[in-house]
Amino acid sequence: MTAGKKVTIQQLRKMKADGTRICALGVYDTPMAVVADRIGFEIFIIGNSGPMSLLGYKESSAVHPEDLFYMTRAVKRAEPKALIVATMPFLSYFGSKDRAIDVAAHLVRDGGADAVQCHADRNTCDNVQAIVRSGVPVLAHIGLRSVRKTEQSGFRVQGRSATAADEIVADAMALQEAGAFAIVAELIPAQLTSHLRKELNVPILSLGSGPDADGIYQVSADVVGFSVFPRPKTAAQFGNVRPLIESAIERFCRSVQSREFPSKSEERCMAESERDKLFQVLREAQR
Questions:
Q1: Of 129, 168, 172, 178, which one has the fewest beta carbons inside 10 Å?
Q2: CATH number of the domain that 135 lies in?
Q3: For the chain, how many structural domains are there in total?
Q4: CB 197, CB 212: distance < 8 Å
Q5: pLDDT value, residue 212
């Protein structure tokens, strides 16, 4: 957990070396960032799950860059100690290195991110390396990559076969070589996560990929039970705020309809002398 100072990449590396668990949370707005930072997380990730769970996008590839940018700025306004990682928009780092660097720089310089996340593999390593060399740290994301849902045949476990698992290992090794400071492993077999943790020098964060990792990452909307969509089977839910919110706004609505709210105690009135002056002015204006 964070202890008063801004989390650094060096600190994350030391946590891996010491065997101390890294806590990462998907955060998308200022109130959640304020609450979560008081608790103490090492990493806040603004991913595609934010616009999907809170803004209703059905596909992560449909998420607009502006959504990720404004959510990043909202988290930054909380001035958290956690490392802020903004996800690179779909297709922004698959072609030109210059474009990849420009988008990453925009998220850091204008959005307030400390680093960026790339759903990457061996084919995008050159651009990841270019971003890192430009001075922007990169958190790599392997295994299930929501932006490649069709290619990966839906939201399903990746790397179940020996051949597929070997490809994921090769991706992870290449991304470490490209300079990624940590790697999120989403929805891969637990044995593969354990192997990556032992073989790689950078921290491995498990997102639905078993417990034997350097850190665990979950989406806040899943953790607290507040999302447009049903919670994924691999996501943990530690609370459910939906009934509380529903109850509160229903009580508000019923109170308005029954004229119980606002009550006299919520009224804010003028002093009688000022009220009399106002009515005098209004009467004179009507003459």
A1: 129
A2: 3.20.20.60
A3: 2
A4: yes
A5: 97
The alpha carbon dihedral of 140, 141, 145, 147 has a sign of negative
- Are residues 269 and 177 part of one domain? no
Cβ partners under 8 Å of residue 82, min gap 6: 2, 7, 25, 36, 37, 41, 42, 43, 44
User: Would you say 180 and 132 are in contact if contact means Cβ atoms under 8 Å apart?
Assistant: yes
Among candidate residues 138, 102, 104, 142, the one with its CA nearest the CA of residue 122? 142
**Phi and psi of 195, rounded to 5°?**
-65, -45
Domain that holds residue 271: 244-286
Is residue 91 located within the same domain as residue 171?
yes
Contact 7, 42 (CB under 8 A): yes
pTM of the model: 0.91
Q: Is 186 a catalytic residue?
A: yes
State the amino acid at position 55 in one-letter form.
Answer: L
pLDDT digits (tens, 9 = 90+) for 215-249: 999 999 999 998 887 777 778 889 999 999 999 99
